[in-house]
């Protein structure tokens, strides 16, 4: 069961704004994503991808900023080891989220959910 | 296999894998020398082992690219290779020249090698990655010209596709920019500036064209996605590679005595360099998602996806990490560079060659794909090598950050050698990850010999 | 959007973009080469320095050391070694000359190259010349290289 063009377009836009929020347009991308979400209806593919994007970004923000902040608080700002952990961790985990959002975008383009229906 | 002459690729691929093993063995030796400074000293000092490690990498990747071209071009051009005999002859010349050069590094002191090969007549030796004796460099040029002639004639007299033309452009660029290796002025700044015309314009320029075209070829084959779609992606990826990468050369001109404007140009354009790799991931994901067939070679698909992701991670993200001038001021020439170098070379170039081998080797051995058991073993080797390379990169990054802090950032900086002893733990962990990589490579080779029932495409085409 | 963006447009971006930026790179290269005399310390590039550079090359010093941050990361940066060794070519020569033939147990050690006095002088002069190159922001960040 394929969805109509507007929904497909909106699902793609949602996945794209989610990816933008993770990369070059933090915050702005998220606001755009929320605006797209408001136009969607429950059960549709565009709602699915908007929600997925929101989830990815909230989890990413939590996992990236909370953990990094904790590392800095526990390790101390002036300790080299803090930066060893924070920079390595942030770079790797951030990329994992980006790659995941890329896959979500590709799935949105084809009008699919993450898992095969 | 559609054309008889494609099978020449097999010869090149076997040599490539053999030299790959040598490269990794020397990598393990180097890793050990980082923690046991006197290991094999003075018989094989660090600089000699490193030369062998990096030169073997370059040579086997070139074997891989040539093999890939010999496989791809006849199929794309829909004709036999222009001259299979020339291809075989060049194979042996290149192999013998390469082997002699490596033996030269190992058997006599480098200065003696320079003397024997009459470096004085045209001094080109002793610069990083371009350590080959001048005569070997001339040999490389001859082999490259014969190769491009052979490939070029095949393409130009056959069907011309975007993939084969992009590949040809990349290969011609490779040969042309290598000519800068013969320019070695006494002026150190000039020397360094034009040295990058080989090194940067290879790995962050024309090699990306080769890589993208090989990836596009394999993706067409395993996914059955429309050629028009793939070609559009290919054009836009290589466009971004060159638009960002050409002026992106400037990120090497921050601290070698070149004008200040490079700080801006190098930072801005090299910040764009992740884009082509980002798009390559999007491209690979997209066509695999929209695949029109279930190709029995799952391993090749895994390698193709892995190439895209790891190239983005290693070349894109880890490059961006230290490419902005204010950051690079602190990180230039530290273990951060080593971390980036390892994952970028593995993710982009090693993996794309292995993708091509994974796809074509079973076909050259008379099957559509390797048997299911062999593919499982091959996928194990994929994960072992890829995950251990991620860890090598993480440990070197850790070492690099600590090094930057202790030696350059701190208010009370300590000396290079003192810093090295403080980061030793990371070097031990890197060495362990290196050994896992070696195991992965052995598993990879084993995968070619695993027997089992043949697998076929579900639907005949 | 993806329907209106054709392969022809992608191809034109590729050709146009790469030709344009290649020309820009050539232009910038001409400008860089013309302005190098201000920074590259060529006034001190004597024959002795040139001979030192050749020795630097044929002994593959770059296989362990960095020079202006480029090379291997196994041994110290040498672009500022002249400053670090108290602006003394004698100290540099003394260090190279004193390396033990069989290395140092358990530690990294520079090989003993058995240079003549003349060769030692040439290498030291080359490193002094390299130290005189004017680098942006006086890289490296401090004397430790």
How would you describe this protein?
The complex is a heterotrimer of chains A (117), B (461) and C (145). By secondary structure, chain A is mostly helical. In chain A, helix 1 packs antiparallel against helix 4. Chain B has a domain of 160 residues. Chain B is built from 16 helices and no strands. In chain B, 75% of the residues lie in helices and 0% in strands. Chain B is globular and about 65 Å long. Chain C is mostly helical and 145 residues long. Helices cover 48% and strands 3% of the residues of chain C. In chain C, strand 1 and strand 2 form a beta hairpin. The chains are: A mainly alpha (117), B mainly alpha (461), C mainly alpha (145).
Topology, pairings included?
The complex is a heterotrimer of chains A (117), B (461) and C (145).
Chain A: H1 5-22, H2 28-39, H3 45-75, H4 80-109
Chain B: H1 8-35, H2 46-77, H3 84-107, H4 110-116, H5 134-156, H6 162-178, H7 188-223, H8 227-248, H9 261-271, H10 274-289, H11 298-320, H12 325-331, H13 335-364, H14 372-409, H15 416-422, H16 424-447
Chain C: H1 7-35, H2 47-58, E1 66-67, E2 70-71, H3 81-84, H4 89-97, H5 117-131
Antiparallel strand pairs in C: 1-2
Helix pairs in contact in C: 2-5, 4-5
List the defining traits of the structure above:
heterotrimer, A: 117 residues, mainly alpha, 4 helices, elongated, C: 145 residues, Cytochrome Bc1 Complex, Chain D, domain 2, 2 domains, two-stranded antiparallel ribbon, 5 helices, 2 strands
Number of DSSP helical runs of chain C:
5
**What proportion of the residues of chain B is helical, as a percent range?**
over 70%
Strand content of chain B: under 5%
**For the largest beta sheet of chain C, what order do the strands appear in spatially?**
1-2
Computed structural class of chain B: mainly alpha
What is the average of the pLDDT values of chain C? 96
| Quantity of strands of chain B, as a count | 0
Strand content of chain C: under 5%
Radius of gyration of chain B: 22 Å
Helix share bin of chain C = 40-55%
Tell me the overall shape of chain C.
elongated
Into how many domains do the coordinates of chain C divide?
A: 2
Biggest pleated-sheet summary of chain C: 2 strands, antiparallel
In CATH, the homologous superfamily of the largest domain in chain C goes by the name: Cytochrome c-like domain
Poorly predicted ranges of chain B: none
Q: Report the oligomer.
A: heterotrimer
Terminal CA distance of chain B:
14 Å
């Amino acid at each position: 069961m394929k969805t109509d063009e507007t929904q497909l377009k909106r699902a793609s836009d949602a996945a794209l704004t989610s990816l933008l929020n993770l990369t070059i347009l933090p915050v702005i991308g998220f606001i755009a994503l929320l605006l797209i979400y408001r136009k969607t209806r429950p059960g549709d593919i565009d709602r699915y991808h908007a929600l997925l994007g929101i989830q990815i970004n909230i989890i990413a923000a939590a996992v990236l900023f909370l953990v990094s902040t904790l590392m800095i608080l526990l390790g101390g700002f002036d300790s080299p080891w803090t930066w060893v952990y924070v920079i390595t961790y942030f770079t790797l985990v951030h990329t994992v989220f980006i790659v995941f959002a890329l896959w979500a975008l590709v799935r949105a383009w084809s009008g699919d959910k993450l898992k095969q229906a | 296999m559609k054309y008889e002459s494609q099978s020449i690729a097999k010869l090149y691929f076997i040599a490539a894998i053999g030299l790959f093993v040598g490269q990794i063995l020397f990598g393990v030796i180097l890793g050990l020398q980082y923690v046991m400074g006197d290991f094999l000293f003075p018989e094989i000092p660090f600089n000699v082992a490193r030369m062998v490690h990096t030169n073997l990498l370059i040579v086997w990747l070139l074997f891989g690219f040539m093999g890939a071209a010999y496989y791809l071009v006849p199929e794309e051009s829909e004709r036999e290779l222009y001259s299979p005999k020339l291809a075989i002859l060049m194979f042996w010349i290149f192999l013998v020249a390469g082997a002699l050069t490596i033996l030269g590094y190992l058997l006599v002191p480098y200065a003696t090698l320079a003397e024997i090969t009459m470096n004085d007549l045209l001094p080109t030796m002793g610069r990083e990655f371009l350590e080959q004796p001048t005569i070997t460099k001339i040999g490389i040029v001859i082999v490259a010209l014969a190769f491009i002639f052979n490939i070029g004639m095949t393409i130009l007299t056959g069907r011309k596709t975007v993939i084969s033309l992009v590949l040809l452009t990349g290969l011609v660029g490779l040969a042309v920019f290598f000519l800068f290796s013969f320019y070695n002025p006494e002026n150190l700044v000039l020397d360094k500036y034009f040295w990058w015309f080989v090194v940067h314009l290879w790995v962050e320029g024309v090699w990306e064209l080769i890589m993208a075209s090989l990836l596009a070829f394999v993706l067409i084959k395993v996914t059955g996605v429309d050629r028009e779609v793939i070609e559009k992606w290919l054009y836009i990826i290589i466009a971004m590679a060159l638009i960002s990468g050409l002026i992106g050369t400037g990120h090497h001109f921050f601290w070698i005595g070149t004008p200040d404007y490079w700080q801006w140009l190098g930072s801005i354009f090299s910040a764009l360099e992740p884009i082509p790799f980002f798009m390559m991931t999007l491209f690979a994901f997209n066509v695999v998602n929209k695949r029109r067939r279930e190709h029995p070679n799952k391993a090749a698909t895994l390698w193709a996806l892995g190439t895209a992701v790891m190239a983005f991670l290693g070349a894109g993200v880890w490059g961006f990490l230290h490419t902005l001038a204010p950051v690079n001021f602190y990180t230039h020439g530290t273990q951060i560079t080593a971390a980036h170098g390892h994952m970028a070379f593995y993710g982009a170039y090693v993996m794309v060659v292995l993708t091509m081998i994974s796809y074509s080797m079973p076909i050259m051995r008379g099957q559509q794909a390797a048997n299911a058991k062999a593919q499982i073993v091959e996928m194990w080797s994929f994960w072992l090598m890829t995950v251990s390379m991620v860890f090598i990169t993480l440990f070197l990054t850790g070492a690099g950050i600590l090094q930057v802090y202790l030696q350059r950032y701190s208010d009370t900086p300590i000396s290079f050698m003192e810093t090295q002893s403080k980061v030793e733990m990371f070097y031990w962990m890197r060495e362990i990850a290196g050994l896992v990589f070696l195991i992965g490579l052995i598993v990879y080779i084993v995968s070619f010999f695993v027997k089992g029932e043949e697998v076929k495409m579900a639907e005949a085409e | 959007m993806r329907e209106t963006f054709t392969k022809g447009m992608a191809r034109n971006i590729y050709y146009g973009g790469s030709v344009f930026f290649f020309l820009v790179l050539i232009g910038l290269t001409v400008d860089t080469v013309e302005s190098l005399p201000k920074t590259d310390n060529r006034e001190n590039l004597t024959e002795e320095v040139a001979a030192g550079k050749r020795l630097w090359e044929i002994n593959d010093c770059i296989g362990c050391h960095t020079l202006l941050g480029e090379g291997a990361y196994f041994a110290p940066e040498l672009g500022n070694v002249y400053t670090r060794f108290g602006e003394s070519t004698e100290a540099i020569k003394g260090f190279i000359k004193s390396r033990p033939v069989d290395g140092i147990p358990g530690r990294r050690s520079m090989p003993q190259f058995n240079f003549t006095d003349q060769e030692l002088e040439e290498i030291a002069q080359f490193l002094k010349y390299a130290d005189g190159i004017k680098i942006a922001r006086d890289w490296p960040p401090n004397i430790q290289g």
